[in-house]
Write a structure and sequence with these properties.
The chain is of the alpha+beta class.
Length: 496
């Protein structure tokens, strides 16, 4: 029986997703399970890695049944996931606490402390990114201070997809973009940076070997096979950070390609062939060797929309909310929303920032506020484009993906705010497709990264309404000014 299928798994913020593809460009199965994001305190974001593994165990037989294949027909497996999530494992592989998510904002004091005692230009040169709420070092410092007994038991620190790789193979590794985004990895030497580890007080033995995405890191163990239904000995590659896998599977391969991801968190990624640094943005390795992705990542995007619906429109569905808000003029009659509900990562890198609604009057309705949420997220994307332009990173082709791209209103607002035509990728499964393709490159099922084009269809090109764009340009400047005026206020709210 020919092994011609590839399994991709994505450990996402809100869902665990799994797909099976063949080598001809077909998606043969697509399944998912919900994941639970917990925020027990202001700014905290945690998940239970055991839930991710349970999801994987449930999804494998469901996917095999959907595709009508056996596990022995799978040629390779790869996992993508949120990055840089922090997971602590004991020597025996036991998870010691919930994950600390990449958008967790509890370490604002530690971030400020380390920013004050380091040279930001040296940090940027070494690691490609500034010290921010996303950095792993300040989070480990926080754990040493607040959970010292757990840190005494810790033998391995890794990320979300690395943990699933461990459960599949028994191997302790991290993929290169977890390493890079951790802020502990030296770009020049391609090793963990000893000076930074000393700065944060991190024992280097806690950090795992760094692997390339398509590098085979192990094989499905007997234990994992019995729990999942996979075949013993199936090769597993190191996989990919979720946003990198998603960008690649949307076709970002050439200089100037830009992707806007309308997901639970908002991502905007720019493909370049040259190494570049910008302290307000993140830097990632592309899946294709020798290329890079300039990465903007907002802590909350679609999650703000979900928050709004759950609290203020629980009986309405999203199409109903869209239809009502679409009737309103651009600018929501003077409402401005700052979407900083979990602090903010790029480009302001302020974990103390707060979600803010400015301009309310008695004439505003629920529908105005909903539209203002969509527009506020789009203004935040526009802020990223301004930062990119300052570095001469200009988009030549723009694509849009993720769940929010299915909303005609949201994608139209995005195009109008940015003032750029946007290509909608049809039926884009996201990171799981990129992961499955990486598995194919690792096991030899694919021989060229260009073969991803088999899986990509553009369903629509959204042309911006330039009259709306003019309105949004004026409001965008108000959006920027609103944050600047409120920035000194946000820290005062922290202790209340």
């Amino acid at each position: 029986m020919t092994k011609s299928f590839l399994l991709g798994i994505d450990i996402g913020t809100t869902n665990t997703k799994m797909i099976l593809i063949d080598t001809q460009g077909n998606i043969c199965a697509s399944t998912s399970r919900t994941s639970t994001l917990m925020s027990p305190f202001i700014g905290w974001a945690e998940e239970d890695p055991a839930e991710w593994w349970r999801n994987v165990c449930e999804l494998v037989p469901e996917s095999l049944e959907q595709a009508k294949i056996s596990a022995t027909q799978i040629a390779g497996i790869a996992v993508s996931g949120m990055v840089p999530t922090v997971i602590l494992l004991a020597q025996n592989g036991q998870v010691l606490r919930n994950s600390i998510q990449q958008n967790d904002a509890r370490v604002f004091r530690e971030v400020s402390e380390f920013q004050a005692i380091t040279d930001k230009n040296e940090i940027l040169r070494k690691t490609g990114s500034a010290i921010t709420q996303q950095s792993v070092g300040p989070k480990i410092k926080w754990l040493y201070q607040h959970e010292p007994e757990l840190m005494k038991k810790t033998a391995h620190i890794m990320g979300s997809y690395d943990y699933i790789n461990y459960r599949l193979t028994g191997s302790f590794n991290v993929e290169q973009n977890w390493a890079l985004e951790s802020g502990l990895y030296n770009l020049t030497s391609s090793h963990w940076d000893a000076d930074l580890l000393r700065l944060y007080g991190i024992d280097p033995d806690l950090l795992c070997p760094v692997k390339q995405p398509a590098e085979i890191i192990g094989y499905v163990s007997a234990k994992a096979a019995s729990e999942t239904g996979l075949a013993i000995g199936t090769p597993v590659t190191a996989g990919s950070a979720d946003h990198i896998a998603s960008a690649f599977s949307a076709g970002l391969k050439d200089e100037g390609d830009l992707l806007v991801k309308l997901g639970g968190a908002g991502d905007i990624l720019y493909c370049t062939n040259k190494l570049g640094f910008e302290e307000r943005l993140f830097l990632d390795y592309h899946l294709i060797p020798g290329k890079y992705l300039i990465n903007g990542c907002m802590a909350s995007s679609g999650s703000v929309i979900k928050w709004f619906k759950n609290n203020f429109a629980p009986d309405a569905d999203y199409p109903e909310l869209d239809a009502a808000a679409e009737k309103l003029p651009p600018g929501s009659n003077g409402l401005i929303l700052l979407p900083y509900f979990l602090g903010e990562k790029t480009p302001i890198n302020n974990p103390q920032a707060r979600g803010t609604l400015v301009g309310l009057t008695l004439s505003h309705t629920r529908d105005h506020v909903f539209r203002a949420v969509l527009e506020g997220i789009s203004y935040a994307f526009m802020h990223h484009l301004d930062v990119m332009a300052e570095n001469s990173w200009f988009p030549k082709k723009v694509r849009i993906t993720n769940g929010g791209a299915n909303s005609k209103l949201w994608r139209n607002i995005t195009a109008d705010v940015l003032g750029l035509p946007i290509e909608k990728v049809a039926n884009h499964p996201g990171s799981s497709l990129g992961a499955a393709f990486v598995a194919g490159m690792g096991c030899g099922a694919f021989t060229s990264w260009d073969e991803i084009e088999k899986f990509i269809t553009i369903s629509e090109v959204i042309q911006p309404d330039m009259e709306n764009h003019k309105v949004y340009q004026d409001l965008y400047h108000v959006f920027r000014e609103t944050y600047q005026l409120l920035e000194p206020v946000f820290p005062k709210l922290e202790s209340l």
